[in-house]
Amino acid sequence: MRVNVGMQKGGVGKTTTSINLAGALSDRGHDVLAIDADPQGGLTLKLGYRDRYREAEYATYDVLSEMGQLSLDDLDELVVEGKEFDLVPSHLRNFRLEKHLYSEARGVEALKLALDRHEGGYDYIVIDSPPNLGPLADGALLAAENVLFPSHANTIAQDSLQILFDEIDTLEDKFDDVEISTVGAVLNEVGKDGVSSEMKDWFVETFGEDYVFEIPDWTAVEHSIESRSSVFAYNPDDAGYPWDTDKVEELRDRYTEIAKHTESLS
Ligand SMILES: Nc1ncnc2c1ncn2[C@@H]1O[C@H](COP(=O)(O)OP(=O)(O)OP(=O)(O)O)[C@@H](O)[C@H]1O
Ligand SMILES: [Mg+2]
């Protein structure tokens, strides 16, 4: 199963959710591949692959554009093996990809085609999207056909979601055989801005009770990412934050819930 973690608004927790969903699925015994579809490389950099991002010989650009040595058959050339899950890292050069894919008739389908040719035996593929609506974000939606929406629980979220729902409708109209399913909404950094209960109610009404998840605004989330892992591989004692221990337990439970829900849809 493939899951796109998508939302065109910046800083709502796409990358954090991607890392922890991939970590949770891996913790539950699955083989997981994460794909960084954001040219800004948040996922790649947060997992510590700065050199890959800046200097690797090949980028997703090369595979999806087929402009050089590589073709859509070669996604496996990009995979790096991680301790929790594998990764297709992003690359500085992928900034050129957005422009390239715009100009290609089937550009938006390139990631889907590349993944169809290289499933690599993974149980789950988690795709982290960029914070804008363009061919890369559309490509991630088309490739996964399942989307998890991270969001802050504020009123702007309603507008952001409406825009994304419209984009999904447009894609489904344009591509006959595509149907994009909702995995759910992750309300991220809950507690930060004194979220109203009306907003949570709106999410539950929109998605259904079993499809809405909450992640509290806790520094333990950031500390785990500082140590380049999900909360599942994060050891607060080793990292010098022993007081994170209880919070980490709770966060693991929350992300495990999302992973179990994802499994139930596959
Ligand atoms: N539950 C949380 N508690 C505390 N901090 C969090 C939480 N979730 C995310 N953050 C922090 O919020 C910031 C934004 O998160 P993240 O990078 O995951 O968002 P994003 O949607 O991927 O952003 P971008 O649009 O820039 O790619 C990061 O610094 C992250 O560590
Ligand atoms: Mg991100």
TrEMBL record:
SUPFAM superfamilies reported in the protein's UniProt record: P-loop containing nucleoside triphosphate hydrolases
InterPro entries assigned: AAA_dom, DNA_Partitioning_ATPase, P-loop_NTPase
Superkingdom: Archaea
Listed Pfam families: AAA_31 (PF13614)
UniProt signal peptide: none
AAA domain ranges (all copies): 5-175
Stated name of the protein: ParA family protein
Species per Swiss-Prot/TrEMBL record: Halorutilus salinus
